[in-house]
């Protein structure tokens, strides 16, 4: 059963939403909406660090990797964005070379937007399950550099942060075992993922229903119900969306971990793993606890993963 052997994160320094008014071209109403209604305050940004440097900073905190490099068979880059560096720069290859992961296949997964992190864990588990070596590991790297103005914020939805995470995944570990996973894409026929006015209206219309359906489907895959869930570790899109989601899911709002929304911004597909680490540090995950990681991304991609601590 796919397991998270270890999780680490790197959160660069932050800048306030108010200080992003000019760089993002926000007006007073938008600043108030992001801060007072959506609960955003500080946004992780690392303007002086490259994507490779930030990924290596996250891996550098992954103590469980030390001495186990030869066991890593796959390095999987989960990308919320298709492009985060100018051609021909490859941050992923830079990371592989620095870490000396000679035995690893290296590739990226994308096109699920901010739900790609959970997809990468599922892909890692599938590959490891077919490996002849029961001790084989996969290294999953999640998070994105806001490389273009387009990637720095989603109008009237959230502001993007540059936090990064690193995960060691095994095929069968003793804790943080994946019990269920479900993903769904409600895409447009023309393949457009940009939130033009029509797309934004449709995204808002379907968001809560589809997210609820995906969570319940992942729980059904695990042969559990929402009553069995001790904690939800969500994507940090904004506070108001999760206030509504708690009612749609039928779960008390205090079981949804929202502390990092004000501290980091929405760090693409790294959010659930950043929240996992924070929840562990706060003692919110007792042994045997059932928790759900969720994500949603541009292009109307949704995912949920059920795990047992």
From TrEMBL:
UniProt key word Transferase: yes
Keywords, comma-separated and alphabetical: Acyltransferase, Transferase
Top-level enzyme category: transferase
Domain Beta-ketoacyl-[acyl-carrier-protein] synthase III C-terminal: 219-308
Molecular-function GO term, any one: beta-ketoacyl-acyl-carrier-protein synthase III activity
Recorded name of the encoding gene: fabH_3
InterPro entries referenced in this protein's UniProt entry, alphabetically: ACP_syn_III_C, Thiolase-like
Keyword Nucleus on entry: no
Pfam families named in the record: ACP_syn_III_C
Protein name: 3-oxoacyl-[acyl-carrier-protein] synthase 3
GO process annotations (BP): secondary metabolite biosynthetic process
EC number: 2.3.1.180
SUPFAM superfamilies: Thiolase-like
């Amino acid at each position: 059963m796919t397991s998270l052997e270890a999780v680490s994160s790197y959160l660069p320094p932050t800048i306030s939403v108010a200080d992003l008014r000019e760089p993002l071209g926000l007006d007073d109403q938008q600043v108030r909406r992001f801060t007072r209604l959506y609960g955003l305050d500080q946004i992780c940004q690392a303007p002086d660090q490259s994507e490779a440097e930030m990924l290596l900073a996250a891996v550098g905190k992954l103590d469980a990797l030390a001495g186990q490099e030869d066991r890593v068979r796959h390095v999987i880059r989960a990308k919320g964005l298709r492009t985060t560096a100018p051609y021909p720069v490859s941050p992923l290859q830079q990371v592989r070379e620095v870490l000396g992961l000679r035995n690893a296949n290296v590739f990226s997964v994308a096109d699920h937007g901010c739900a790609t992190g959970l997809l990468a864990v599922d892909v890692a588990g599938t590959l490891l399950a077919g490996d002849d070596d029961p001790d084989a590991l996969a290294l999953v790297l999640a998070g994105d550099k806001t490389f273009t103005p387009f990637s720095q914020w989603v109008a009237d939805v959230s502001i993007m942060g540059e936090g990064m995470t690193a995960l060691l995944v095994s095929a069968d570990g003793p804790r943080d075992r994946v019990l269920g996973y479900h993903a769904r894409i409600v895409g447009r026929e023309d393949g457009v993922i940009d939130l033009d006015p029509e797309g934004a209206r449709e995204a808002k219309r379907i968001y809560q229903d589809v997210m609820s359906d995906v969570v319940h489907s992942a729980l059904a895959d695990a042969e559990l119900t929402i009553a069995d869930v001790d904690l939800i570790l969500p994507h940090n899109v904004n506070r108001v969306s999760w206030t509504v989601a708690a009612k749609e899911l039928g779960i008390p709002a205090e079981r949804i971990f929202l502390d990092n929304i004000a501290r980091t911004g929405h760090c693409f597909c790294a959010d659930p793993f950043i929240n996992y680490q924070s929840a562990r540090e706060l003692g919110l995950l007792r042994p045997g606890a059932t928790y759900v990681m969720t994500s949603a991304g541009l292009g109307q991609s949704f995912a949920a993963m059920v795990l047992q601590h």
